[in-house]
Amino acid sequence: xxxxxxxxxxxHRKDVLNxxxxxxxxxxxxxxxxxGPLFIVLLYSFMVKGDYGDVKFGQFSLDGWFNVFMQxxxxxxxxxxxxxxxxxxxxxxxxxxxxxxxxxxxxxxTAYFIATRSERNRxxxxxxxxxxxxxxxxxxxxxxxxxxxxEGVINSVLKWLGVIDQPIQMMYTDWGILFGMxxxxxxLMVLPLYASMEKLDFRLVEAxxxxxxxxxxxxxxxxxxxxxxxxxxxxxxxxxxSLGAYVTPRVLGGGxxxxxxxxxxxxxxxxxxxxxxxxxxxxxMAIVMLALLFYVxxxxxxxxxxx
Amino acid sequence: xxxxxEAARGVAIDVRGVSKVFQGTGQDRxxxxxxxxxxxxENEFFTLLGPSGCGKTTLxxxxxxxxxxxxxxxxxxxQDIAPLPPFKRPVNTVFQNYALFPHMTVGQNIGFxxxxxxxxxxxxxxxxxxxxxxxxxxxxxNRRTSQISGGQQQRVALARAQAPQPKVLxxxxxxxxxxxKLRKDMQIELKRLQNETGITxxxxxxxxEEALTMSDRIAVMSKGKILQIGSPxxxxxxxxxxxxxxxxxxxxxxAGAIESTGKGRAKVRHGSxxxxxxxxxxxxxxxxxxxxxxxxxxAQISGVRKGATLKGMLENVxxxxxxTHFHVRLEDGAEFVVRQQNKRGIASGLTAGEAVGIAIxxxxxxxxxx
Amino acid sequence: xxxxxxxxRQWGFTTIAMICFFLLYLPIITLVVFAFxxxxxxxxxxxxxxxxxxxxxxxxxxxxxxIRSLVxxxxxxxxxxxxxxxxALATTxxxxxRGLTFKYAFINQPLMVPEIVTAVALLIxxxxxxxxxxxxxxxxxxxxxxxxCIPFAYLPIRARLESMDLTMERAAADLYATPWNAxxxxxxxxxxxxxxxxxxxxxxxxxxxxxxxEFVKSGGQDTLPTYMLGQLRRIITPEMNAISTxxxxxxxxxxxxxxxxxxxxx
Lengths: 307, 370, 266
Known about the structure:
The structure holds three protein chains of three kinds.
Chain A: H1 4-44, E1 47-49, E2 55-60, H2 63-69, E3 70-72, E4 79-81, H3 83-115, H4 119-134, H5 137-148, H6 153-161, H7 174-198, H8 202-210, H9 215-226, H10 228-243, H11 247-253, H12 260-268, H13 274-301
Antiparallel strand pairs in A: 1-2, 3-4
Chain B: H1 2-8, E1 11-23, E2 29-41, E3 45-49, H2 56-64, E4 71-76, E5 79-80, E6 91-94, H3 106-116, H4 121-134, H5 150-162, E7 168-172, H6 180-197, E8 200-205, H7 208-214, E9 217-222, E10 225-230, H8 232-237, H9 242-247, E11 252-262, E12 265-270, E13 275-279, E14 289-294, E15 299-303, E16 310-319, E17 323-330, E18 335-341, E19 355-360, E20 365-367
Parallel strand pairs in B: 3-8, 3-9, 6-7, 7-8
Antiparallel strand pairs in B: 1-2, 1-4, 4-5, 9-10, 11-12, 11-14, 12-13, 14-20, 15-19, 16-17, 16-19, 17-18
Chain C: H1 13-35, H2 51-58, H3 60-91, H4 100-107, H5 109-112, H6 115-133, H7 139-162, H8 167-174, H9 179-208, H10 211-216, H11 224-231, H12 238-263
Helix pairs in contact in C: 1-12, 2-12, 3-7, 3-9, 3-11, 7-9, 8-9, 9-12
């Protein structure tokens, strides 16, 4: 007769085994088509580039990584900083950070507005914010193109109002990309912000007013600290995809204003430098990991959960 | 007569040396049950009584099969049921929050157990109707369980658990969510049910009044241990430990020293010098200083006169309609409460500030184990 | 009559919020409006017409791409929902066990990596496999879509599961239901709205995907979004608007359904 402990342990073991079996399909699929490939990318970043794209399998070199920031002049072998790449890194960081900040500035009042509606209306507003979110990225970018083109809505209206003679060039500039990204990622900031705000106990706000704070102080000293987890979650949700944006800069920036995503694309297309493309991808991942770490640190230190 | 009837009953559940330790994250270890021994007989209405956290629900869950003991064994009619998963144990549970299946009707809920046992449709339907009649809910057969009242849900839960005719029925504080009147009604109902069907009921509650009114036997639990098992009268009149005396009803505690013992009784000298004759509890370990308990209604109060066991000063008289409580300050500073039932029109004749005497009969005093 | 002091009011917030909503919808509305333009321009209005919808409908490339999108989405979301349901059952309503956090992170990994990186990673792997096996069909796309759809199906299912008290299953076991029966008769019916929600989410996500599809597809294997991406390089007619509008309507319909299903509490 088995002892009580044995019975308990064997049941527990069986339970854990069952759980592993159940998760196998999902884990396998993701291993093969999401996580695993990342390691291959890492591997490829250390290989020799092939003549027509791809790599010379098995042959290793640090050129991929080298070429991320440096370049070797083909004639006299001097090393210089790859200005083009640097510019692209810089543009990507700049644009992502700006996008994050702008979406936060615009998203905060929007989320607040929704959170302060009555229970019934709230759902409608939420729904209205969610629709753009579920609209295809490409469609939204295309729609934005229609707005900022030289013959687009903004320029047409301004011309009609007589404010300008010549259209303002927004397409194919960094500004165009910025507008596009803010437009595309705004819902991603609003939703987690809203989730945080929904839980805000307005009696705390009342207490603030009761203690002689004005509305700005209430905002800065009470509301914002409490919804900080939502702000951080939203920022991460915007920063990470915007850093790796591909469609928006491609459509709105043309070929000239590349971001990291487009640079990577180039290496796997015309650039025919898969190791370099891999190295840049890994670099992008590294920055993302850092951002995520920052998020996890902040989320747990303020004792918060996912919004 | 009761004793022989009890002795003739078989043993339904035998809990032998069961312990349950929960290993939390890191250092936390919670001992929910500590070396528990209890024997529950067939056809009895057995209650596990104790405050929350005492382990009563844990024990119930172990019997039902939702968890495993860390040590010890549980026998059902002599068979070790530890290796059996809950769906193989002929034991059914009435859950505290009823756990009715929301996507099924009342009838489907009640018939669920029989369905799972593979009983033929006709038999299941017949039994469901029988159960509905038993709990008087025939007209609700096709109602969704989310559309009936709390009291009705409770009866459906009861019917559902009884339909498969289990050997033992476990009830986990089934009445705690009901309002007072409904609760009282259900208590009578449950008792009637148990008498009629003869199923062994194991009832868990923290309400001592409930336990006293419904049970054949009670096990009082605290902090994972069983402190005392006995009939309601035993538990009430002869509490063996301070916790039991305190938890059930009101008690007076008198400190004293044992002068002599014999034939299950002891003579205890109270601080004031008075000698009390008290019964000794089971498992009493010899010691000098003991506590004697007396229930407020087992003592009599009067003006000072010879023959009174204790003397003191009446501090407060509180009138309760049905009875009067007399709060007396004894000579050694302790408080003693005497309860007297009020007779119509006759006042007690005692006023606060008077010196009074308290008489304690031989049968009224009990020595505590601890 | 003094205006009641509303503690919720913050200066300018409502205005900014309104502007945001307006700006969010302006591009989309412009897009939809011009889909009905009888002229060829996307900016000059010439009157109402359905011609572009008709043109899109008759465009064989559009038809092919649309069908391909739907096929991929259907397969991917079905497999993803299946796997995600099992994974959710495995990782929810349990005391922490070894590997649980790892599993949770693993399953949600596609959400944490920029799409471009996953896209090139898959490009690399599939390129090699194409060489080895010579297979060049939709399988790669379906596999890729399934992978990133899993976390999207997983989250609503998990959320629903977490709101389900284990007591139900215990009651079922108490009433002689074997684990399989308890799952079939109790867990599954109660979980079903979550599964449905997960499926719809995965479906929309798959339909919408651009980046990964663009990199993984072989020549001629356009889905609707990649077809549109290609077209954006050329001279654009309101046909694009028409296609976008239809796409938009379908997405909105599915998302509305998703909301309704999620709202329903069994």
